[in-house]
Each structure stands twice: as C-alpha cells, then as structure tokens.
Amino acid sequence: MLKKRIKVRATLQLQGVIASNACPYGCGNSKTVHHLAISCPRAVAVRQSFGFPISTNHEVQDLFSLVKNLIPSVWLRVWDTMTVAILWNLWLARNCKVFDNVRFTIPMVVRQCQDTLKLWFLRMKKIEKQAAQHLIDSWTD
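Structure tokens predicted for Reverse transcriptase zinc-binding domain-containing protein:
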C-alpha cells in the first residue's frame, strides 16, 4: 500500500482492466489506495472502532508515523501490527465484495481485525504481548 502498487480499482482502470474505478461500496468515490485505507467511510468506521486518531486528510504512511512519539516504545510494534491488521482486513473485505459480491458489515470487519490481532500478537515478545493484551482487554463485544 505504501508504494502505491496495490491493484485498486483506480489502478486497474488506468491499465484498461476495468471500465469503472468507483468504490464497490457505493460511496461515489474513486477506489484509490488512499480511499481504501483512509477516506472510505467503511475504513473510517473500522479505524474509529479501534480509536485510531487519523483524519481523512492524512496519507497511508501517516497511519504508521503519526503516533510514534506519543506512545511508549513497547507499544510501537503493537501499533504497527494493529495498523497492518486493519489494512489487511479492509483489503480482504473489499476483495470479498469485488470478487464474490459478499458484503461484510463494519462489525464483521472489526471482529476479523480483532481475531487477526489476537493471532498475530502471539508472535510478540513478552513485554509486547502484555501491551497487546491490555489493548485486547479494552475491546468491548
């Protein structure tokens, strides 16, 4: 995503693969990497579920850098992992909509993010796991 090589609808339209670059969720915007990760109302809702302080005016790389000097160092890997998990699940949900016409609700995407994070957090060092567990405990069902 950061290198803008992701085959979103805007890229596929430029390459002549598809005719329309419209967001598959019907929000009326062009489906760019920025839209998928930052400005799509679905992306905003998922990020808000996790308390992400990112406005739609930011760029994708800002997801990784804006809070770096605001959080303890033990949280840095947790933050990066959380960011990647959210982006990954937004991408998976988008693929389900585009290729299978299956529309995941916002709560379903949030739940998938949580499940992904719980699995990925198991690979962290002990101190990072404690920070991650604190995050998991803060989630409400």
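Residues 9-138 form one domain.
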